[in-house]
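_Backbone structure tokens_
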Amino acid sequence: MDRLLQKSIKESLKDLQKNSRKSFSKAIYIGSLTAILIAATPFLFYSYNYIPESKSWDAIFFTYHSGYYESARMAFWMILSKFIPLLLLFVWFFTCRHWWYHTILVPIAMYLYQFIAVLNDDNVFFDNFDLLYLLPIMAIIIPSIYLIRAKMFNKINDAGKSMKELEEEFMVKPKGVIGHLKQYF
């Protein structure tokens, strides 16, 4: 009986060690891809310099005709000037471990709105009322952040914990992007 128990414990430890190695290597792989993506953003942003100044651009997979903008280069400069910060904000949102990470949704919504405006280049004065579209998002985010902050300060006054301990207590630790998305829906 003791040998069977020892054998099953050893097998369990081997499985646990094997799974932890897999999750560790997966985390290193995803972290490396994220770091490469962040490091490549200047190159992605300045890639508009390789697009011709003409009204239309014939690429390998598509042909782009500039409507509102003067040239294809100007259009892609506008697109990339909204897309790159949006991409970096998404990376920050999905990797942030602080209790206030929901506030990053406000600039994400703002850049997403501006990105859609750039893609829909027929609307010349699209940016005039973007605050009205952000108000519902801000009406949800700001009170929820305030409630979390109030709850933290109540715990500080009651328990005598430091701010760092409370921040660690409110820290969300999802298991990945899918786990992060499941948290919201």
